[in-house]
Amino acid sequence: MTDAWSPAALFGLAGQVALVTGSTRGLGWAMAQALAGANAHVVLNGRDAAALEARVAELKGRGASAEGLCFDATTGAEGASALRAVAERHGRLDILVSNAAASLRKPVVEMSDEEWERDIAANLTGGFRLAREAARIMTAAGYGRILFTSSINGMIVRPGMAGYAAAKTGLFGLVRGLAVEVAGKGVTVNAIAPGYFLTDGNARTRAADPAFHDRIAARIPAGRWGNPPELAAAALYLVSRSASFTTGTVLTVDGGMTVSI
Ligand SMILES: NC(=O)c1ccc[n+]([C@@H]2O[C@H](COP(=O)([O-])OP(=O)(O)OC[C@H]3O[C@@H](n4cnc5c(N)ncnc54)[C@H](OP(=O)(O)O)[C@@H]3O)[C@@H](O)[C@H]2O)c1
Question: Is the pTM of this model over 0.90?
């Protein structure tokens, strides 16, 4: 085998700079570890400075290159200026994983205009702002990978999650729309749609309703919830140089849940 076919050549990220939003826990943390494991310099993000510092230390302790950037990735212009600052400091930004999200559990008939707008802003507009800034930097550089964490809630949904579902479906449209605009400039834009994964984000729901865990597992053809590394591996492919002809797609990672009846 030639070196061109080695995992390092196909999926290695040495010399690249990656920003992963919402990466002190859960799926973001798993994706950040995969990118760091492939030798990218990883910029971790979250709203808790102490948690960020601990995760950066953990990665560095394993010999990885990392830094933390504390900002709210789902509101205002804060995220875009933080992203710009990363690119200016390192002279490049190769990878954006827009992963942070927020979810409001409320039936549509009880939702105010403000709650709807907040849900869409947190789960769609925040990612749009980051991706717009990343696309400007990446198209100028002639290379980049933009990856959104959407959800199978963009396809199937439980009651009380219409705003979240609308925003996660909206990400599919953003992916396609942006992908066709930047495809000729070396930049790919994709989304990953996780099914049910065991993360801190849903730990409270699982604790409050222990039968929920089993009920969901029974609906998944794989017969279980996903483990975060199973998502991280898919993300690593989509942000790698190897994925240069894969753009405008949504990769579903759900143990078969959305294809089963
Ligand atoms: N877990 C699943 O089964 C599942 C399924 C489908 C889709 N998803 C999607 O996957 C993504 C991650 O979910 P998760 O379950 O891994 O969540 P999680 O375990 O709750 O972790 C969320 C991470 O994001 C950070 N965060 C939250 N809000 C933020 C904000 N406004 N700005 C910056 N950072 C923020 C959190 O840190 P701080 O709170 O300290 O800021 C934490 O690091 C989300 O987009 C979610 O919609 C998850």
Answer: yes
Residue 168 domain flag: yes
Is position 260 within any domain? no
Most ligand 1 atoms within 8 A of CB, residue of 33, 43, 130, 149 to mutate: 149
| Cα–Cα dist 174/131, whole Å | 9
Q: How far apart are CA 110 and CA 105, in angstroms?
A: 10
- The average confidence (pLDDT) of the chain is 96
For atom 7 of ligand 1, which residue has the closest CA?
Answer: 151
| Residue 143 annotated among the catalytic residues of the structure | no
The per-residue pLDDT for range 135-144, each reduced to its tens digit, is: 999 999 999 9
Cα–Cα distance for residue pair 16/37, rounded to 1 Å: 12
CATH at 194: 3.40.50.720
**97 within some domain:** yes
Q: In this model, does residue 130 exceed pLDDT 90?
A: yes
Per-residue pLDDT, 2: 64
Q: Beta strand pairing status for 65-70 and 17-20?
A: unpaired
- Encode pLDDT of 66-82 as tens digits: 999 999 999 878 899 99
Flag whether 261 is in a domain: no
What ligand 1 atom has the least distance to the C-alpha of 52?
40
Domain hosting residue 205, numbered range: 3-252
Q: How many domains does the chain have?
A: 1
Q: In this model, does residue 1 exceed pLDDT 80?
A: no
Ligand 1 residue neighbourhood (C-beta within 6 Å): 21-28, 45-48, 51, 72-74, 99-102, 149, 151, 194, 196-197, 199-202
Interatomic CA distance for residues 126 and 78, integer angstroms: 10
Distance 2 CA to ligand 1 centre (A): 39
